[in-house]
Known about the structure:
By secondary structure, this protein is α+β, with helices and mostly antiparallel strands. It has helices at about 55-65, 160-180, 220-240, 245-250, 290-300, 305-315, 320-325, 330-340, 345-365, 375-385, 390-405, 410-415, 425-435, 440-445, 450-465, 475-490, and strands spanning about 1-15, 70, 75, 75-80, 90-95, 100-110, 115-125, 130, 140, 150-155, 190-205, 205-210, 215, 255-260, 265-270, 280, 285-290. The strands form four sheets. Strands 1, 2, 6, 7, 10, 11, 12, 13, 14 and 15 form a ten-stranded mixed sheet that branches. It is elongated and about 95 Å long. The N and C termini lie far apart (about 75 Å).
Amino acid sequence: xxIKPIIGLEIHVQLATRTKMFCACPLEFAAEPNSRTCPxxxxxxxxxxxxxxxxLEYSIKAGIALGGRIARFSKWDRKSYYYxxxxxxxxISQYDLPICSEGSFEIPKPDGSxxxxxxxxxxxxxxAGKNLHEGLDHTRVDLNRAGTPLxxxxxxxxxxxxxxxYSFCVELQRLVQWLGISEANMQKGQMRFEPNVxxxxxxxxxxxRTPISEVKNLNSFRSVRLAIAYEINRQxxxxxxxxxxxxAKKGKMNFGWNDAKEATEFQRGKEESHDYxxxxxxxxxxxxxxxxxxxxxxxxxxELPLARQRRFIxxxxxxxxxxxxILADRATSELYDDAIAQVADAKLLTKQxxxxxxxxxxxxxxxxxxxxxxxxxxxxxxxxxxxxTISASAAMQVAEKLCEKGGSALEIAQSAGLIQERDESAMxxxxxxxxxxxxxxxxxxxSDNPKKSKAAPGFLRGQVMKISQGKADPKLTxxxxxxxxxxxxx
Length: 490
């Protein structure tokens, strides 16, 4: 028996606009229930929607980044269905003319290569409200979210397993945050995943396809991975128990995810497109996109995260782990990219970003760019370490002061007494003192024991740094120690 999972994803991305999709109500997470509503998003008779242009432009940016075809002409459709949190009894969406179609998104593989996942479409629509059940014997409805602009991205069933789905979701979140079109905060419901899973089972030369399960509203990468893995196993076991458990005989089904049990739970049969009775919305004009708008938005998209990662690895010798830090957000990567043009030592600058600046950003719950340290100061700190003006360890103290009050890295180092001594006569005096106070280390350095002779110079250098209170240039100190040991051997 051969088993082949067939996995596609539907992803709802809340766009980071100030107002809703078709009205001027502000978007605000955790506002007082039903306080961010108006006659339009409440579906009052006689009201007219007006399209949010920013939401449209954000969607076009996403479509460009996904390598899709941007529709020069698209329209709005009414998707009719009733839920308590859908006040109009229909959702304004896009049916046969989505804003983007026929795309492809590269996802990284464990070996460092990438693999494309096809994108069927990405279309704009409005969100529903929210039903509240917790701790109640009845249901309450909060319509603050009703009308929120959503971009729904639908993949082809190209994803091969749960781990690949996990990777896709992580990269897609990084992309929309990179583009600045969504905060994609899953705890706030700003990015929700709905895997569509079934299995092709080949047994005795005959292929059977299990029913397609759509697992609704997953809000974590972990849930995506676990739900898909669970569904694959559940469907195979269900088919083994009943060979009529097939798509042809059972159709499509919706499931929920019970995170506590780590299991899916059947909800209902899935509607087909004809069940929604789509028809063009008579209150909204179609959308047309001209060449100038497309060119402008394409320029704003710029270099994408995976392309920039490949360039950083190839050009600057970064590791994938380094890239996770420096490419965590667009502003930080651009700060690095601008700084590296002025710093000769790429490895030193990378080390400072991954070590010093990332440490300070994490402590302040910020991004590196969010620290507000200007590029000129980032460059200056790297240069004064590279030329030996201050030590690598002293750089952290200087960086902390730059975060607190700004200014010149060199002036901060001078006022804090962190400038390294490079006068050879002064350094030679410290070295002589270290040699006098540590005769055993000197003997080890002069011995024929390879292990001891290799370790002793490093110990002596540490003693010089201690005597000088960190002011001695470590590199020059090491060179002078080696020179002194060589003279003693002679």
